[in-house]
Amino acid sequence: MEKKHCAAIVLAGGQGKRMGTKIQKQYLDISGKPLIYYSLHVFEQSQIIDEVILVVGSGEIEYVQENIVDFYHFNKVSRIVEGGKERYDSVWNGLQILKERRKSEKEESFVFIHDCARPFVNEEMLERAYEGVEKYRACVVGVPSKDTVKLSDRNGFAASTPERDRVWIVQTPQVFESSLIIEAYSRMMKEEHIQVTDDAMAVEQQMHVPVKLVMGSYENIKITTAGDLDIAEIFVKKYKFL
Ligand SMILES: Nc1ccn([C@@H]2O[C@H](COP(=O)(O)OP(=O)(O)OP(=O)(O)O)[C@@H](O)[C@H]2O)c(=O)n1
Ligand SMILES: C[C@](O)(CO)[C@H](O)COP(=O)(O)O
């Protein structure tokens, strides 16, 4: 089967409130390179990803073009767009580029939605995700939970305990047929109260298409708080990532 065109939407439009630093977390230094560098580097080298749509914060397009895209020669970055208030607003802004293009294209393509806050995505993961989306139309990478998970009631008491063998911690990339995710987001964005914390939820809720879980990596962590930066430094050194 011929390989389908794969676009990555890389999200870097957040404010990093939980990190609590003056500089937004996507630009924080990890072993001499900004956090945003790492996933863009993986996509630049990838045999799977053909182009990257980069979503950045308000007023940051020029800065990112000069200091990240041009500086590190990320030639697969085809567009840089501004994000929105919530993560899903940023995804929606990125999807607009593909939505416009789809009008003139007949071929199906795939979209890899990725948080730049997850620097340790790798090519094997992208390959597994490609196989997943080709077969199932929608897939997310994740890892089986090593811990027992409790759902709490509103008062902080354990309400139920899902069977651990079925609990997955999901990560990004989250990968979809372009037409499927565009339609899911188009429907969802019309709703008054949107409550999704990942892209799979849009497809589950709006399209009722089952989303396949494929193996990510326990090291594909999301850099969220200060302690995560120390772990990231260790992983960068371990994999001689630079
Ligand atoms: N409005 C937003 C919010 C988040 N993101 C991106 O989505 C990813 C996951 O979000 P998160 O880790 O929560 O980042 P922040 O929103 O920056 O962090 P916080 O919630 O602590 O403010 C990050 O790569 C972030 O840059 C985005 O593009 N646009
Ligand atoms: C999409 C995600 O990375 C999957 O784990 C996660 O839900 C993003 O959450 P955040 O609160 O926007 O960081």
Automatic annotation (TrEMBL):
One of its GO terms (molecular function) is 2-C-methyl-D-erythritol 4-phosphate cytidylyltransferase activity. NCBIfam families: ispD (TIGR00453). Pathway: Isoprenoid biosynthesis; isopentenyl diphosphate biosynthesis via DXP pathway; isopentenyl diphosphate from 1-deoxy-D-xylulose 5-phosphate: step 2/6. CDD domains: CDP-ME_synthetase. PANTHER family: 2-C-METHYL-D-ERYTHRITOL 4-PHOSPHATE CYTIDYLYLTRANSFERASE, CHLOROPLASTIC (PTHR32125). Its EC number is 2.7.7.60. The record marks R18, K25 as: Transition state stabilizer. InterPro entries: IspD (IPR001228), IspD/TarI (IPR034683), IspD/TarI_cytidylyltransf_bact (IPR050088), Nucleotide-diphossugar_trans (IPR029044). The keyword Phosphoprotein does not apply. It catalyses: 2-C-methyl-D-erythritol 4-phosphate + CTP + H(+) = 4-CDP-2-C-methyl-D-erythritol + diphosphate. The record marks R164, K222 as: Positions MEP for the nucleophilic attack. It comes from Dorea acetigenes. It is an enzyme of class 2 (transferase). Belongs to the IspD/TarI cytidylyltransferase family. IspD subfamily. This is 2-C-methyl-D-erythritol 4-phosphate cytidylyltransferase. Catalyzes the formation of 4-diphosphocytidyl-2-C-methyl-D-erythritol from CTP and 2-C-methyl-D-erythritol 4-phosphate (MEP). Keywords: Isoprene biosynthesis, Nucleotidyltransferase, Transferase. The keyword Lipid metabolism does not apply.
